[in-house]
Amino acid sequence: MLVPLVGGLALVGGFTAWALTRTSGALVNLRLFRHRALASASALGFLSGATLYGAMLLLPLYFQQVRGQDALGAGMLLIPQGIGALIARTRAGHYTDQLGPRWVAFAGFALATAGTVPFAFATADTSKVLLMAALVVRGIGVATAVVPLTGAAFFGLGHRDIPDASIISRVAQQVGGSVGTAVLAVILQHTTGGARTQSAMADGFDDAFWWSVAFTTVAVPLCLLLPGRPKPPAPADTTESEAVART
Q1: CA separation for the pair 242, 96 (Å, rounded)
Q2: Structurally, how many domains does the chain consist of?
Q3: Contact assessment for residue 46 and residue 140, using Cβ atoms and an 8 Å cutoff
Q4: Distance of CA 99 to the CA centre of its chain
Q5: What is the pLDDT of residue 247?
Q6: pLDDT (tens digit, 9 = 90+) per residue, 80-90?
Q7: Rounded CA separation 62/118 (Å)
Q8: Which domain holds residue 213?
Q9: Mean pLDDT score, 76-98
Q10: What is the pLDDT of residue 111?
């Protein structure tokens, strides 16, 4: 296990060194990380990917292995999270335009954290109504967090840099999802490997969910690095406007 990890880090380091020497045509323009908006949005995209995809590994397994649901039943119990995301998606864009991405993402990650915490305390007998309500909150939080990150990555960039910035932000989210899923899978296997009862299995899932909570908790203060309220457009010079009108 250590050899692939070291090999992967070496390849990433080699790619980074090679990409920094490229003046043009690099697949990923790493120099764009000098822009705070893109760097912070990419870091948060990484954590949002870990939060979204990592927890989506745990949630159906919890309902199947701890609560005894089949695959269809577990999927039906996850519907409230999709409903929450649907509710928040349109409003999140509206509030991002008004308030800027900083506070919208802050609220989104805070809600996602709050919606995940009940699963870290869940037992084999926890009310499903309570857990589904938590999933609605979690869905609202995840959707609210993801929407402003899309636009925040492009703040202050020229038109030529936007395609590269788009690649960076999307790759960050996808890599975050892969890392989050892998980390939580390893943790879950470690915490539930020796479980012989439903209570022990639930305790193992609790530990894994606490790690998922940690991913979102780390993201909350990072949101403060995102751009704030957009500046209103500067008023036109009335003297110049009147002169133009007279001509």
Answers
A1: 35
A2: 1
A3: no
A4: 20
A5: 47
A6: 999 999 999 88
A7: 13
A8: 35-224
A9: 89
A10: 93
* Residue 213: Cβ within 10 Å count: 20
What CA–CA distance (Å, rounded) separates 212 from 221? 16
Name the one residue in this structure whose structure tokens are 């020796």: 194
Any idea what DSSP says for residue 125? T
**What's the one-letter identity of residue 88?**
A
Give the DSSP letter of residue 126. Answer: S
The terminus-to-terminus CA distance of the chain in angstroms comes to 76
Model confidence at 54, pLDDT cuts 50, 70, 90, reads: confident
Instruction: Give the position of tokens 């909150």.
Output: 137
- Which pLDDT does position 78 carry in this prediction? 93
Cα R_g (the chain), whole angstroms: 22
Q: What is the CATH number of the domain that holds 137?
A: 1.20.1250.20
Q: Is position 190 within any domain?
A: yes
126-143 pLDDT, tens digit each: 999 999 999 999 999 989
Residue 128 in any domain: the answer is yes
Q: What is the pLDDT of residue 52?
A: 80
**Mean per-residue pLDDT, 6-14:** 79
**From CA 69, how far away is CA 148, in angstroms rounded?**
35
Per the structure block, which two tokens stand in for 55?
């927890």
Query: Is residue 17 in a domain?
Result: no
What is the predicted pLDDT for the residue at 206? 92
Is 234 part of any domain?
no
Distance of alpha carbon 127 from alpha carbon 116, whole angstroms: 15
Distance CA 43, CA 46 (A): 5
Residue 63's pLDDT band (boundaries 50, 70, 90)? very high
Q: Is the distance from CB of 57 to CB of 179 less than 8 angstroms? A: no
Q: How many helices (H) and strands (E) does the chain have?
A: 9, 0
